[in-house]
Amino acid sequence: MARENEGEPYLSLKREATTGSEVDESLAALMTNSNAIRAIASAVEGTLGPKGLDTMLVDKFGEVVITNDGVTILTMMEANHPAARMLINIAKAQQAEVGDGTTTATVMAGVLVSSGVEQVAKGVPVARVIEGLRTGLKRALEVMQEQSRPIKGLDDPLVRQVALVAGRGHADIADLVTRAAVLIGEEKLKDRFFKFSDSIVAEEGAENQVFMGVIINKERMNRQMPQELERVKVLVIDDALEPEEIDDEALGTEAGFTRYLKLQEEFKDNLKKILDLGVGLVLADRGVADPAEEILTDEGVMVIQRVANKELRKAAEHTGARMIKRTGLKRPVAELERYLGSADRVYNDEKLEQVWVLGGKGKPMATVLVGAATSEVVGERERIAKDAAASVQAAIRSGVVPGGGSLEMWVAREVEKVREGIRGMAAYGVECVVEALKRPMAQIVANAGFNPLEKMGDVIAAQTETGKNSLAVDCDSGEVADMYENGIVDPASVKVYALKAAGEVAEAILRIDTIIKKREDKADSSNDTFKV
């Protein structure tokens, strides 16, 4: 991170060990780690909430990415400090697990660490702070899960609201994601191995669309192949469509050359089988030999080579095809028939340089095509749509909770009750959890241009008076409002996982007592020393 001084990368109170190693005092280690975590959190907290601003990331070549997406900022920013990388890895894990909530997790982790370090600096033992953290987090997670409201089917209006909030207010994207969710179905969305966000594709110049099918980001091998086919048999080859290879040295022998001629003949027989089966579309993981391209072109077969493995698998699943290796083509024609899939329509879109496979007879699979006016906004539109899709899927699985920081404020008040019942210094660790839970609303309100202390006081008073956990600040008017009534909802699992992830990284950072730079491996290590 650029904030570190080149010659003195850690804030340190150093002692010279008898071995010649330089080791940070424990408090200094905590302080430098806390500063690194705080720097990472400050990089994304300005994006939180409906009034959050964007961040510009610039590489050494001047290429620019402008985004509001927390995990994109974290993964693209330059961060060399080990504690900072720990936090970034937690954000990546959050993204992989639930697909959203990385900014919230990062902000809360920053508060947990900084508050914990403050308590340690005042004389509270680290062990007592961690004990309090665990107690407070356990109660917070229990309360959060109790507040979840289930989604009543895909026609529940809350589904679109989840997509709208996660999609940062882009109504067109929310509508696309909601329609796609209905096409896919609730059962598929609850499948833990299915990722709805993988169905999102963004293209410059495309029109917003939702359709049952998959997109292959490759074109047919040549323009003599058909551009469009209907009621197509599909062969998916998880290999190259080429003759089996033979070693150059073996080819120089009589036996090797005989083997080569035999393999060439087998390859021609395999191509004939493909034609006899009436295959109209061939998808290959790797290259296609020139003779195969020529023969299949003459017979009106569309061939796509070097298809990404992920797209190949999606196409196989959608069409009902079973992927086969090139050696598998030696099987009898009757047996190969079982490996074929089918689709209602295959179309090569020359403008988008893609092939669309529509109406497959395998598993239903919807694709959300998000259009973008320029290449500069394609990436951000795709990120927004993926967040919306991931949030919808998380909501279907776990239900929803009120957003806007309202739930965290409610939970903070419940955790404060736990603090009142704890004797000893562990209470200071519980206080760190309370501060972390209050931070999302404080940051949302600050980003909207209001005074956090004033508005949070209003919310606490309103929640206490009404007993509603859904009261927060309307970022347009600044007044206390019901988030459920305003349609501001988040998936319960996103909130739960964010707090859990924040707690894990905070405890890991607080437990670090000493920072030692590892010795580099050298041929002569007799003069090596450890230095921080």
UniProtKB/TrEMBL annotation:
Keyword ATP-binding (UniProt): yes
Keywords linked to the UniProt accession: ATP-binding, Chaperone, Nucleotide-binding
Keyword Ligase appears in the UniProt entry: no
TM annotation in the entry: none
SUPFAM superfamilies from the UniProt entry: GroEL apical domain-like (SSF52029), GroEL equatorial domain-like (SSF48592)
Pfam families per record: Cpn60_TCP1
GO molecular function, one term: ATP-dependent protein folding chaperone
UniProt-listed PANTHER family: CHAPERONIN
The family this protein is said to belong to: Belongs to the TCP-1 chaperonin family.
Name this polypeptide is given: 60 kDa chaperonin
Natural source organism: anaerobic digester metagenome
Underlying gene: groL
